[in-house]
Amino acid sequence: MVKKAILWMHKWLGITSGIVVFIISLTGAVYVFHDELKLQLYPEKYFLTSSSAADPKPLTELVQIAQAALQPDEKITRVDLYPQRDRSWVFRASETNERAFGHWAYFTYYKRVFLDPYAGEVIAIENSKNEFFQLCLQLHMNLLLGKTYGHPLVAYATLIFVILLVSGIVLWWPKKWKGKALKKSLQLDFKVKWKRLNYDLHNVIGFYSFGIALILAVTGLVFSFPNFKKAYVDTFNSVFPTAYTLKTPQQSKSTITAHYSDPLDNALAHLLLHYPDAGMMSIRLHAHDNPSIDIQIRMQEKRSGVFKWYYFRKKDLGIDKIIDSDKLQAGDKLASLNFDVHTGSIAGWGTKMLACLASLFCASLPVTGYILWWHKSRKSKKRNRNVSAITQA
Fold first, then answer.
1. How far is it, in rounded angstroms, from Cα 164 to Cα 12?
2. What percent of the chain lies above the pLDDT cut of 90?
3. In Å, what is the CA distance from 155 to each residue of 82, 135, 137, 370?
4. What is the DSSP code (8-state) at residue 383?
5. CA-CA distance, 177 to 195, in Å (whole number)?
6. pTM of this prediction?
7. Residue 242 in 3-state DSSP?
8. What residue spans define the domains of the chain?
């Protein structure tokens, strides 16, 4: 009786959320390798034709060059730069309308300006609103409907998917853990009819993808529900306090050497000097009256969870604090690694392949599930027609 109720719930939750789960799973599988694919597909944007031995021009000068390449109302708000001598620097300009419906209305504008930081020359200007991987990301996050309308659909579909995964394992669970019953639950027999093969595909793929799919779904919930994120961060911080209490973010009152007139240029020059092998650095450009400068250093280009975050005082070039990802409390550490886990970049190519394959498996589950439902619905209608014919006769 209980299993029958779980099956009914599993069926109707799957029917209502299946299309959304299919979309976010398929786009997730593509986006796993977006960093690598961008470098292969757009090498002229991300790589310089020749490396330079000179120092990069001051950042404030480069911002002015990038700003001049855009429309007057398109403001540079972020810079992603790479210490490697053969890489361009990327200047982002974006503005969103949170309440707008649809992707193209949600982004008022979104441009990326690629610069040679040594020559101070514009390499390319990208309308990122229409760029393929950005479209994949927005389709994954909000179905191209805008944040207000699409984000809740994705969030609750992900929550339903977690329920489907758990209920699916309950329904999959073999009555006997031996013989043919166990074999059918773990292996595919391609000699059976297609209807039976579709049923087995749904069960077997669901079982083998369960663990990784659950991790991907739960890390998705962290992005979807801020209160869920806060709850688990606070929980892990309180449950494992001793492991990290002595490793609070470093406090440094030292000052840095001034080579330029603008504090931002001095702060960046200091970090480029001390972290020449960093994967990338990211800078949010704040208002001029903001008293501080913050620069994130990603120690590995494709890992957002391994970083040092510097906070400088503009008035005297003092370093207020350094947040080191290795010295976070347990809950904060997990939160910082959430993107790396969600995209599979946590341990390189191996985990990326697992995340990609698991996402493709997840995309197949609504398809095989819909086929199951469609076949049983047809069978049920046929049975009802036969009963009706017999009754009338």
1. 10
2. 81
3. 33, 18, 14, 21
4. H
5. 24
6. 0.90
7. coil
8. 2-28+150-229+350-392, 53-142, 248-327
